[in-house]
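To: structure desk
From: M.T.
Subject: fold request, one chain
Message: Could you run this one when you get a chance? Sequence is below, nothing fancy, just the single chain.
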Amino acid sequence: MKKKFNLSFERGDLLPFLLILPTLLLITFVMIIPLFFGTFISFFDFSLGGFDLTRDFIGFDNFVRFFNDSTALKSMVVTVLFSIGAISGDLFFGTIAAVLIFRLSHRMSSILRPIITMPLLVSPIIVGLIWRYIYDPQGILYWFLGLFGLGIKDFPGVTSQSTALISIIIAHWWQVTPFVIIILTAGLVSIPHEYYEAAYVDGAGSFRAFQKITLPFLSPMYMVILLISGVDTIKIFDIIYALTGGGPNNSTMSVNIYAFNQGFVNTNMSYASTISLFAMLLAFLLFGLPFIHNNRVQHEEYK
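Reply: Done. Structure tokens follow.
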């Protein structure tokens, strides 16, 4: 008589390890090894042609160079400003749109959701090219502004230092806000309707109910959006590269575009790695630490 195959395992068996082994290998070769290699070469004068371990060691020179590089420091400021503007708009417009869609009839919301989420299917580099044509002096934006007697002098778009960054932020809103709508709509569905009924019975208005019921329930989702979208804005490259390339006059030069220019245009891979390390540190300080703190607070509350 054949024995039945038993999938159960005792503590100490290799099955759990074997199940996560593919993921561990992927993380090791795609993330951990490149991170250590990038950190390693930042202490050398490394170019695309190679380097000598004994001859090209320069210690912390690349790190000192970064703090003395006005363009690098400006790129950090531009990245932070872009991140603040992009995330603020994503959350603001995403929240309003999610609430409005949630209050529509089921049939109407079923029609609107696929339409609204279409920008998510477009590659960021294509989004940049789309908005490049929109911001063209002969494009649809200035045709529309012309109906109100406005022109390129009133809103120079990506051609002026004063409006180039906000123009890129608007393009980012167009693509990423649907992601926020999807997440928040799922959160709104999970809120028990009885809470709103009790609030209305007590005399609370729509805004008061939104403030006291909706926002607290959505706060964990806001933290997830903040982490995902925040890290994504720090490493922004595609849209800016397609729209402005970092110009005019470095007014939209993000950290990653500057690292790209140093590494693949100037072939200085070691300095590019140093810039990328500072970008990673910036993402951790702005979004990693608040996320860790929030998890600790929630953990203490559940104890």
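Reply (cont.): DSSP finds twelve helices and no strands in the chain. Let me know if you need anything else for the meeting.
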